[in-house]
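INFO batch 0412 | record 1 of 1 | parsing
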Amino acid sequence: MGTTRLQSVGVSCQTRHQLEHFVRDVKKPDIELTPGMFDWLICPPASLVKLLASGIPVFEAGEIMAVNGRAYWPRFDLYFWHGFTLPAKPGRRLDIAGTFAAMRLKFELQRKKFRQVDPCTTLFVFSNSQNNLATEVYRSGHPALQIGKDAVDAMEEALGRYFGHKCRTLLVTNHSRASADALEDARVAVITTDNSEWKGDSAGWKIALGSALASDRQA
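INFO prediction complete | emitting tokens
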């Protein structure tokens, strides 16, 4: 078996953070992290499915709006959680108009790179275990906070259609954020709910990713 590349496809920043932590921790030459366009977005499964089905279009002027101090794309129900900002004291400030051209160019380049991802060597990972999804991003009842097997199926199928090849996916979640049928699915890993705002349980992630990669190598 050759190199496996780990690629985040949402739902939130925790996925990219934990993939990076895992690759750095295990230090295996045949496991790599592929930085991607979904790393720092808030992109629920339904948003990714719709985005892929649309060919990942580039946002147009006037499409991005400010919602709760973040840049939001209502057409696809996704947030550029750290995007469209400029340095400020303290931290950063949202400036959609002032950063639009640069963000659009960045998105175009990221889209091009994502299209070049090799689905044969990639494990597409998404998670909804980030604690502040329920406090800062969504209200109770949003589908991102309760993912079912149908959403996992839809994600995998959408990726397969986009790349023209069957794709391997892994959902990392916890017991309170997945339906019973999802919890029984082999493509779903359950981790313990931690106390962090967004980073997640690194020990649980390590087990989840290690098990998924071991299963790949046995297949």
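INFO post-check: The CA atoms of residues 189 and 208 lie 6 Å apart.
INFO record closed
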